[in-house]
Amino acid sequence: MRYDSQFIDACIKGLPLPGSTTAKGMRLQELVDYVVGGLEGARVYDRNTHNAAQSQEVDLWLQHDRRISGLPFADLLVPIECKNEKTPASSAEVSRLETKVRDSGGSDGLLVARSGLAGPTLDKSAHDAIHVALSHGIRIIVITGDDLNRIRDSSDLRDLLVVRYVELRLEGTYRTI
Amino acid sequence: MMSPQTERTAETPSRLRAFISYAAPDRDAVDVMRQWLQARDVEVATADEVVAAPIKQELVSALVHSDVVIAVLGQGGASPGVLFEIGAAYATGRPTLIVVEAREDLRQLPAALSDLPVVVLGGRAAPVADRLLATVQALVADWASPVAAIDAPISDSLPPLPQPQRDWADESERRVGEALIKLGAKVVTQQPGNTVKRLDLAVWVPGLPAPQLNPILVEVTGRRPDVQRSIDQLRAFMRERGSLLGAVVTADSRSHQWVIDGGLAILVIGVETLESKTLESFQRLMVEGRNQLFHAPR
User: Fold this and answer.
1) CATH fit for domain B4-144, picks 3.40.50.2300, 2.130.10.10, 2.70.40.10, 1.50.10.10
2) pLDDT(B233) > 70
3) How far apart are the C-alpha atoms of B271 and A84, rounded to whole Å?
4) How close is the nearest chain A Cα to the Cα of B177, in Å?
5) Overall fold of domain B171-294
6) A174 in contact with B at a CB cutoff of 8 Å?
7) Which residue from B minimizes the CA distance to A52?
8) Average pLDDT in the A76-80 region?
9) Which residue of B62, B145, B222, B280 lies most exposed, with the fewest beta carbons within 10 A?
């Protein structure tokens, strides 16, 4: 599916605008909802779900048909976390997503971090947390705001997710982020 | 036994019915799952309810009257009975889901089951129950809208996309990487290259019949290869990374050979042979490796 580039450009321009953490998060979430919803054999099947204790929220849930989608996720249901911050996602944010994936009995999570990942040279960096999650059997695939700026159709997004997944499996984290 | 009129079809607009296959040591986990599913309006059947002989006929009937099969591979592991029922589920066209009790159990899954979706019970009860139900619903919905059989040969209909410039470690790696890119594979190089105890390439081959077969980890040898050493090194990487298929590519024209050992399949192939492959013939080669792996003794 060819994306509406005007819509994407407008969303991306709006990402750095001021607002509460929730309002900023919702702006990125709207963009991710749009691009993920355009993937063949995939859909966003739930938004802003909380656990029973209201202590954990998942921004979006992706559901895909593995026979069609060509996505690298083994799980049919994948939680998506959207981080629209000017600072890179921290190790704590990666670990929180890892916990959400684990708590729900899954193995795959998607982190959309507008400003990438903290590190890699920092001790306890987000890259470290990605590596640790993988050693626990949890695969966190990461895409960034720059990535969203480059994709123009759904096959671009699918290919990006595949390459990031392969990179994760080879390197244990991401050299390209 | 149910009447033939209740046989499940894609159009059956009734409560979901799940058949849970399990070994005796997993009964407690099954009781919990039964409660979760019944609380979410899913009917549950198990082999315990198959009482009349001959069991083959009764079991097939129970499966045919279910929308989905949930195979529990927990403390009981992959017991012959569970494997038999998974095979019967395949044969009767029922979508199948694996449930394991702990994340560590994933590493013990037989390779032949690697293409099935998995839910791990070891999380928090409510989110796991929600995922279990949503996965069951997704499987049933997908089954109701069939696509081409996943094992069908994949054509080269998707042209290879332009790929970014890469930093190949050396000429051998460049040649192997470019041969794979020409097939339409997505190739990621390890950096820095040519580092001892690090792998050379990871490759996503489009159109493989199960996503878990990707990525294929690749070790590229030099002019005078110690193939056995490369195989041993690659095997260690594959275990660490949880991959099923790997390839050692030598800088010569040797034909291909699969080495199957320890639940892993490693292809040894010369770069000239690799360069002669089309995407379709390479996919067939990977499926050949998968088939040998699936039928290898554990």
Assistant:
1) 3.40.50.2300
2) yes
3) 45
4) 14
5) Trna Endonuclease; Chain: A, domain 1 (3.40.1350)
6) no
7) B126
8) 96
9) B145
ipTM of the complex: 0.89
Which strands form A139-144's sheet, in the order they lie side by side?
A42-50, A57-64, A77-83, A108-113, A139-144
User: What CATH code is assigned to A5-171?
Assistant: 3.40.91
- Residue B108 CA to residue A6 CA, distance in Å, equals 49
Query: What residues contact residue B233 under an 8 Å CB cut-off, 6+ apart?
Result: B197, B219
Q: Does B204 touch chain A (CB under 8 A)?
A: yes
CA distance linking residue B167 with residue B163, whole number of Å: 12
Other C-beta atoms within 10 Å of B224: how many? 8
Percentage with pLDDT > 90 across chain B:
53
**A105 has a pLDDT exceeding 70:** yes
pTM of the model: 0.88
Which residues make beta-bridge pairs with B98? B71, B118
Which residues of chain A neighbour B124 with C-beta distances below 8 Å? 51, 103-104
Q: CA of A170: which chain B residue's CA is closest?
A: B202
Q: How many CB pairs under 8 A join A and B?
A: 107
- Coil, helix or strand for A48? strand
- Domain pair B4-144 / B171-294, same fold: no
Q: What is the predicted pLDDT for the residue at A154?
A: 95
DSSP code per residue over chain B: ---GGG---TT--S--EEEEE--GGGHHHHHHHHHHHHHTT-EEEEGGG--SSPHHHHHHHHHHT-SEEEEE-STT-S-HHHHHHHHHHHHTT--EEEEESSGGGGGGS-GGGTTS-EEETTS-HHHHHHHHHHHHHHHHHHHHS--S-TTSPPPS-SPPPP------SSHHHHHHHHHHHHTT-EEEE-SSSS-TTS--EEEEPTT-SSGGGPPEEEEE--SS--HHHHHHHHHHHHHHHT-SEEEEEESS----EEEEETTEEEEEEEHHHHHT--HHHHHHHHHHHHHHHHTS--
Task: Give domain limits for chain A.
Answer: 5-171
Determine the pLDDT at residue B2: 37
Q: Write phi, then psi, for B231 (nearest 5 degrees).
A: -65, -45
The size of chain B, in residues, is 298
- Point out the residue among B123, B191, B203 whose CB comes nearest to the CB of A105: B123
Structure letter (DSSP) for residue A135? H
Q: Which residues of B touch A70 (CB under 8 A)?
A: 206
Residue B234 confidence (pLDDT): 94
- The answer to whether A137 faces chain B, any CB pair under 8 Å, is yes
Break chain B into its structural domains and give their ranges. 4-144, 171-294
Q: Establish if A106 touches chain B: CB-CB under 8 angstroms.
A: yes
